[in-house]
Amino acid sequence: MSVELKGKKVILGSTGGNSVVFLYPGQGSQQVGMGFDLYQTYPEVRETFDQADHLLDFSLSELCFEGPEEELNQDVNAQLAVYTVSCIVTDVLRVHDVFPDVVSGYSSGFYAAAYAAGCFDFADGLSLVKRAGEILLDEGRKIDGSMAVIFGLPPEKVDSICQQAGNVQVAILNTPRQTIISGIESSVRRAMELSLKAGALDAYSLSVGSAYHSRFMKQSGIRLLREIKDINLRNPRVSLVSYLSLECVSNKSELKNVMVTQLSRPVLWVDLIKILYSNNIRLFVEVGPGEVISRTVRWIDRNIEIVNTANKGKLFKTVERYGKLRNSNRSKENR
Questions:
Q1: 158 & 257 share domain
Q2: Phi, psi at residue 317, to the nearest 5°?
Q3: At which of 183, 205, 227 does a domain end?
Q4: How many structural domains compose the chain?
Q5: Rounded CA gap, 286 and 307, in Å?
Q6: Quick one: 31 and 121 in the same domain?
Q7: Helix, strand, coil % in the chain, rounded to nearest 5
Q8: Are 178 and 299 in contact (CB under 8 A)?
Q9: CB under 8 Å to 304, separation ≥6 — which residues?
Q10: Which of 103, 133, 160, 334 is the most buried (most CB within 10 A)?
């Protein structure tokens, strides 16, 4: 389940070996209270939350700030909330002159990455996230699907177990020792049992409404492509890397195909992080709520420097670290 890294290169910005990558989290990073400290500080943040509330016809801001947690954790709500807060953090970083050279996202976090790359405005992205999530749930209702985490086995072993169990497959390569599987629930349970017998340290189900990133969601991509054919997209302004192809999205036409294909294909997160690091990217920044991405990156390679924006204090530390890196770059250029 690993890809050949040799020869794969991202297209870096002008800073070359001192480049910065923004990584965007997906569903699972949501938490009650997210974005509230920024809402209290920045007028632009209040405007974006107000816009989201108006477009969605319900108070996403109240759901983010106050919960209830059970409602926030519902698939589409979680995806909308994480997208909104991630875009807000991107905009706040821009206010402080913090910009990426490369962007990518974990699962639904790819939409916020595309926003950061200038591929669409906030409203169009919010509509995309909402419709994709609704289609996935609708297709998920047609099957008895689920997902689970297998911890403590190499992905190749998990892949072999999935083939033995039947209608289940590797969906996300989180870390070298943590793999998420997806498929028909009975097969997922069977794969969990086989994994524990094979020496897995843990195996547990995820609370999700669909068999995300599996072949059973292929129809979702077909439906989404049909519905977004007229959406206003722009070519990426910075390097936007797919978690599936592990290559840069070159234009808006390719972006559309990437977005729909990724719905039913694996998240090759380990390989993505390794490729980015092998391209001499200096600073990794998790942009959005929580610290899930930071933890996975540290599990993949503890030599990687990653900072996050989980709250206002950590965001300011990220701004400070970015400034030091850019000042270092300028000093080298002036020598």
A1: no
A2: -65, -35
A3: 205
A4: 2
A5: 6
A6: yes
A7: 50, 15, 35
A8: yes
A9: 273, 277, 284, 297, 298
A10: 103
pTM score of the predicted model: 0.94
Q: 3-state class of 169 per DSSP?
A: strand
The DSSP output letter for 16 is G
CA gap 44, 48 in Å, rounded: 6
C-alpha–C-alpha distance, residues 50 and 60, integer Å: 9
Q: Is residue 2 included in any domain, yes or no?
A: no
Grouping H, G, I as helix, E, B as strand and the rest as coil, residue 21 is strand
Tokens linked to 91: 């905009």
Are 180 and 196 contacting, i.e. CB atoms less than 8 angstroms apart? no
What residue type is 86 in one-letter code?
S
CATH code of residue 241: 3.40.366.10
CA-only gyration radius of the chain, Å: 19
pLDDT digits (tens, 9 = 90+) for 290-300: 999 999 999 99
Q: What is the CATH number of the domain that holds 187?
A: 3.30.70.250
Each residue's pLDDT tens digit, 231-251: 889 999 999 999 999 999 999
**Domain, as residue range, for 264:** 16-140+215-333
What CA–CA distance (Å, rounded) separates 76 from 82?
A: 10
Structure tokens at 240: 């936007």
Q: What is the DSSP string of 246-313?
A: -SB--SHHHHHHHHHHGGGS-B-HHHHHHHHHHTTEEEEEE-SSSSHHHHHHHHH-TTS-EEE-SSHH
pLDDT at position 7: 45
